[in-house]
Amino acid sequence: MTRGVLLEVAGLKVHFPGGRGPIRAVDGVDFVVREGETLGLVGESGCGKSTTARALVGLVPATAGRAELDGRSLLGRQRKSLRRRIQMVFQDPYASLDPRQTVGDILREPLEIHGLGDRRERRLRTIELMLQVGLDPRFLNRYPHEFSGGQRQRIGIARALALRPDLLLLDEPVSALDVSIQAQILNLLSGLRRELGLSYLFIAHDLSVVRHLADRVAVMYLGRIVEIGPKAAVFDRPRHPYTKALLSAVPVPDPEVEARRERVFLEGDPPSPDREKKGCAFASRCPLATERCRREEPMLLPRTGLGRESRRVACFEVVESGGGRAG
Hints:
alpha/beta; 7-stranded mixed β-sheet; 4-stranded antiparallel β-sheet; 32% helix; globular
């Protein structure tokens, strides 16, 4: 059964002032997140993944485009009732919590801002949140510096859950943690998604983590999405040249397989984000680039509808050769 679309983003742009021109951090992004699914948003550092998430929760202003949660706009003036339904978990568990507040204060604050419950109900809710993320409620009176990195990230997740949202934006939630702790947090997120029926936009540069958690994957390069589709299709049969290069950089744990497999090396540097881009943003590094690629911007094709389970690729050569069909 096809799940309904919860979040729809179309033509989203986020530009910042720059010396030689606007810095195009996000330059026209389209994607959807369905009810109960995890969309992984991947790409190298600086491609605009985190800025996309920050624009959706109003931390940075969008320059253009639209973003709708259940058909209601997230951009511009947001209503409190709508903001309650989309929350964010940040990358750094050390910087994302107020060191002057106790854990109890941190978890109660969203409830107080939105006027939810009386004093007793808020106290019970903070205890419930601690139990949901695997922490002892007796620690509610402690301060963030008294916890480990993994425990702090659990507190950050609990704070994001306080208002019972439908969608969590997870911005590299395990990249600052030790490997053993990463697995615990990923298992926690998987369990919460099943238990609470949550949807996730999971932002990461670690492709193995995305493969573990995501249902679909969107690959971002220099402010634009170049490929999007079901996880198995994107990982096992990548179409876009950048996706192939990105996946080839992931080491394989089997030494024999690692020695035999073909690596894709990219030459040159990406264009500066403060220069207006003509054509495909990847053209200067792409082995398939033609003169048309340098003149025209490829769209995500085939356009079978934003709500459909489709494979879409922004590459003239791939789509016209038949390699952009749904995988």
